[in-house]
Design goal:
About 50% of the residues lie in helices and about 10% in strands. The protein contains 13 helices and ten strands.
Length: about 300
């Protein structure tokens, strides 16, 4: 297959775009498209400080690489969760993240859960009943709390995550099947800053997972290939597999599903229930972050239960 731009040998075929591109043109195309989405969604400007949540995976490291290449003030944040079942997942992902930052002379914040709070995600899950076998609930709570804390404490204007189109489509599929109106209302490429909650953006929301893997490979980015050991058998993985089957039969289906949802929401979908769904937020008396609870936030309650045990 030939490159649609230069006529050379294509290294990737994007069926949803009916387009193949060579290495240089694909890298340039993906970077340019990222810039286009940042501007179109009004995510952030060159004058703003961006904190990129990095996990050692292809998407977050590729996002950091793209933003730095485009000239943004982008620093990284890695949260050491202590998930070292079998393969030493957290240790390896941290090593790769630090190697990426050091090779490019980039600033990386590291939050070590064990050092900061004396525990880790698997322990939190077991001692607080937030998923004894699959501690995804505890993990998500920790990451949300710490990402917002670091963004706030170090004066970042925006928090960027590496969620790609496959991630967003699977989340949308799950929330639609269950008609989770509050989650559907909040799902968007940009969540604006609100009373102490950092602005959150997903610059890769229009790119397929395979495109991000190709970008990382072509840019020579070394990342952790293994999934989180607790991700096996998860509902999100199952939904991704279902959507991949649909995509194979109808190229562009995932992109159409997600972008049409955003367009419908912009036109007023769920508008009548907006006032009822958005919760009233209060300051947590312990950590100072916003919470829908009238007392301590879920993160502080979870840590308090662990400390008592």
């Amino acid at each position: 297959m030939k490159c649609k731009k230069c006529g050379g040998k294509a290294v990737i075929n994007m069926r949803q775009h009916n387009m193949g591109l060579c290495k240089d043109d694909f890298i340039q195309w993906l970077q340019e498209q990222t810039q286009r989405h940042i501007e179109k969604q009004k995510m952030f400007t060159l004058a703003e400080k961006v904190l990129v949540a990095v996990s050692g995976g292809k998407d977050s490291l590729a996002l950091w690489d793209i933003l730095v290449t485009l000239g943004y003030q982008a620093d990284g944040l890695y949260i050491a969760l202590g998930i070292d079942e079998g393969i030493g997942y957290s240790a390896e992902s941290q090593r790769l993240t630090e190697a990426f930052a050091n090779a490019r002379d980039l600033k990386l914040h590291i939050v070590n859960l064990a050092g900061e709070y004396g525990t880790d995600v698997p322990t939190l899950a077991k001692q607080t009943k937030r998923g004894r076998d699959k501690p995804c609930s505890a993990c998500g709570l920790v990451k949300r709390h710490e990402m917002n804390r670091i963004a706030r404490d170090f004066g970042y204007d925006v928090l960027a995550t590496g969620h790609n189109l496959d991630d967003e489509a699977a989340t949308l599929f799950s929330n639609t099947l269950q008609w989770n109106g509050d989650y559907l209302l909040r799902q968007a490429p940009v969540l604006e800053e609100r009373n102490g909650l950092a602005r959150k953006v997903k610059p890769l929301f229009r790119f397929y997972e395979r495109e991000m893997a190709a970008y990382a490979l072509l840019r020579g980015i070394e990342y952790i290939y293994d999934e989180c050991p607790f991700a096996e058998g998860s509902t999100s993985t199952y939904y991704k597999e279902l959507l991949n089957q649909l995509e194979n039969q109808s190229p562009g289906a995932k992109q159409h599903f997600y972008t049409k949802f955003l367009a419908a929401k912009k036109k007023g979908l769920f508008a009548e229930s907006t006032v009822e769904i958005i919760p009233e937020l209060h300051l947590c008396p312990k950590c100072g972050q916003l919470t829908s609870a009238r007392a301590e936030c879920s993160f502080c309650k979870m840590m308090e239960r662990v400390q008592k045990k």
